[in-house]
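Re: the pair you flagged

First of the two:
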Amino acid sequence: MTDLKMIIDGKEVESVSRQRTDVINPATEKSAGSVPKGTAEDVEKAVKAARQAYKKWSRLTPAERSGMLLKLADALDKDVQRLGEMETSQTGKPLKLSLNSDLPFANDNIRFMGAQARMLEGASAGEYAAGYTSIIRREPIGVVGSIAPWNYPYLMAAWKIGPALAAGNTIVLKPASNTPFTAIEIAKAALAVGIPEGVFNVVTGPGAEIGGALCRHDDVNMISLTGDTATGKKIMEQAASSVKRLHLELGGKAPFIVFEDANLDAAVQGAVVAGFVNTGQDCTAATRIYVQKSKYKQFVDDFVGHVKKIRVGDPLKPTTDIGPLISKEQRERVAGFVDRARKAGIEVLTGGKPLDGPGFFYQPTVLAKAKHEDEVVQKEIFGPAVVVMSFDTEEEIVQKANGVEYGLASSIWTSDVTRALRVSRELEFGEVWINDHLPLASEMPHGGVKKSGFGADLSRYAFEEYTNIKHVMADLSGEVRKGWHFTVYGDQA
């Protein structure tokens, strides 16, 4: 059992409500521990602490902030086994995914941002108007309200913590209510390596109350959210009253496009991994698989054969490929999509049912014979259910791939480099992979367009998201009356 407290102003504290919330292990349906049930009053305390810490933290040299973030990454690396097990206990994701993917990549991103702190760039100083020198300053925004999701709680917390702190901001982080453990542990590690009190605060509790209080608070200068599109819309509405900076990574409905000249074995393998990663609870998951007609039947036969071999079960076993869905409600949501599809005449090639026994498990599912306008093609299912469809021409597939409201991720599978580059130009997605799907790098940006949000995660572009630009313009002449003053006052000399 893991029973943790919130982190406010460098201290482990209970909520003013004195109430606690159980965190359910999705694989067992039993309590994995508990955290405080925070309130708007707790948010007020955390924001006050972050505001008080901001001036000192933002005035540290980049080297000083960098050093602390590098120490944080090192400390987290040393504790990866315990943190990975904790992550799996609250999410149900396979331990092999936590230990070999999520946590190492998250720590690498913190380390990258630690280095990036020393590379804050602007336009070169120079004379862009006669008689004046212009200087560009990039400065921290202030207090950042960060809202992390439940599908990648450790990884998404790191994606928000790293660039915000590196740029000199302070943070109030609200983890998802059902996955709060590892965010608190990162904050505790930050204090242990010397990051000052109040710089990194964590408030746990209901999303509507905690997130709403952050969005409406006048002393919160920016909101960074990873979540679904509906939540993003609410955040925009709540933040509008104070005109906050927003950074939103929202939903996705990624197309996985297989042309007839693709390496079919590689495409099938890639589709299994991309479609069912994290039990399909991934905004970049390949949920719409399109295969050119001449290879459609062969692809589908091979793909379904591989999907039937996916090992579903205890996430602590090294042989488990996918675990449960995050909650009973999420399993019911996925089941609802599949049941409605079946009633509409869409074919279920494999899976399509919950698994018996404890845990929120659902069979890996492949759907076929869906039309472009069907909800399983248009809406984000967020579970282990993918749709396979065929196409004829390049023009047709570009239109279908772009024909959804999302624009986060996509992939193209082909041996024709010219086609790959041409189609990647036409796809309306923030990420386009060629002959693979899912890998990311700390040095390269990740973000969406359309209703998948705006703003970059990862890379120096994310770092810049957490800064304001200031133009400093200095007169070089020392003259009392400038040559242009007559346009406002007096006569031309």
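Second of the two:
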Amino acid sequence: MQAYTFLGILLMFLPLSAIFMTVPVHADLMWGIQVVDEANGIGNWYCPIVVDADNNPHIAYSGAPKMRYASWNGTDWNIQQIEYADAHDLALDADGNPHITFGSLAYASWTGTKWDIQTVTTNHTVYSSLALDSSGNPHIAYITGNELQYASQNEANWNIQTVDTSPEINYGVSLALDSNDTPYIMYSTPSSYVDRSIGGLRFVNVKLAIWNNSRWNVETVLASSNFGEFGNMVLDSEGNPHFLATHHRYLSAETPVKVSDVLYVSWGGSAWNTQTVASNVTLANLGFLALGPDDSPNIVYNSEQLMYARWTGKAWATQNVTTASMANPYLAVDSNGNPHISYIKGNVLAPYIRRSLIYATANATELAEATPTPEVTPTFPDSPLLIVASAVIIGAIIAVTVYVWKKRGTKP
């Protein structure tokens, strides 16, 4: 009788305890990784990737010796050599034809049978950001000297404007066009510098320039002595900008070791919202942001290994993709929400060594079907339920203890 009574109380206790002990299970994506191209001297810092209407990946990158363009046809990679220069950025038009900026500064577009190459400017630039408008015309943002410039093409002519002039504008720049073909340009300028015996922290002001009728409106988005750099900017389906940033600091006041927080920043309509994606990481470089078909953010960053983070709707799910040494990773998300990553494997700072262009992808659709409940921090019930449940559990424990004590006291 004693055993059956104890079992009954225990069965009553277990469902209540499950309220506090249940932890949703999160499954990682399964990545497929392949070598697209490999050669001595291949690759530099940039290898932008985009996906077409059929969700096939396309990648532009620097070759040995020519800039190259790789496209997946569903079975194989088709690789073309274009020009003696470094690739900057890549975009596809409505027909799936590639457009590439490269060199210092040139623009290449595929006509269907050949590459049409044009010189945009002879002023020196090390990087440019490319976007195509609703008519397929190219728009390019780039830094030359101390100027942020914007070039747009109408028919055969290039119209070049100076957006901002400031000492030491950083060469990183990101351009996006909204549904009305209005250009948004994000860039940064130095704000301060903190020196230490081993290296130093350089901080920036992040700025956003938006074309408004006949002039550029420039606003400072982030202004702090803690922001180290910003990543690429993208616009969501409502035209709201999203971008990455880093919060740099030293690990402690006594040590020169630098750590960073990876931040995801988005415009909510009335204010900028900031979330921390990863904390206290050692960043080799910031990485790349892409939005899924539902505007959900997906992020890759290089923290001495390639990391991928996606927003589940309640939390950031982060996993390691590979531990290989790499340069800047790039990311695209297809219409099914599947991530596509490109990166250069090997040391891009050392010339003429053998390096590889790597492509990685995963099927997020299968994961979503297999694990509909995302990984989140377990939450406790509301206060009234918590009090009642606690009272019942404590009462059950007391009842079991008293019952056993009485049984032992009545033994002959």
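The radius of gyration is 27 Å.

-B.
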